[in-house]
């Protein structure tokens, strides 16, 4: 894709076209682990294409980012403004603001299929647990994983955090590279199964050292 679209991040239209083709295979859920926090000011038409592609779906999920609580006073977002938040108790007379980064796209916010994708390692730096939800001023804010689980009908743990059940060392989970899959979607002569992602939970993400998403786990120093 770099030869045609340049270096990552690609124009959002690429992800919109990918999503349109992917939806034809009827996946159970499409989960973007990519934070779409800002508009592409140089390519608004590309953003508009992605917006339309997302608006046409009912099974797409997106992350938001919970920032350090020390920055809460600088925010203008209250818990009730967060799509997908659930009231669990009476809100205080003056609810505090929360430092969160929400997606930029209105279609994502209207869909409400959001959750935070923060991961908090233990004090020794090893990732052993995952947050299921946060309680903020009488509102339950789900993690992205919990939001997906609830939507597709699996039971969601009642506890606010759970031990991660790591199943094998790094690279145990099946992954496919975005480029070859997308190229095949656009090709007149298909070489991949056309039901490759049928009824699957498809996680779309990227990784790079600067994203700090490679962490030690009980199964490996780099995971």
Task: Write a short abstract of this structure.
23% of the residues lie in helices and 16% in strands. The mean pLDDT is 91.
Written account of the structure:
- The chain has helices spanning 2-5, 12-23, 44-55, 106-111, 144-152, 178-186; strands at 29-32, 60-66, 86-87, 100-101, 114-116, 129-131, 133-136, 139-142, 161-163, 201-204.
- It is α/β, with parallel strands linked by helices and 223 residues long.
- Strands 1, 2, 4, 5 and 10 form a five-stranded mixed β-sheet that branches. A three-stranded antiparallel β-sheet has the order 3-8-7.
- β1, α3 and β2 form a beta-alpha-beta unit.
- α2 packs parallel to α3.
- The longest helix is centred in the first third of the chain and has 12 residues, at 12-23.
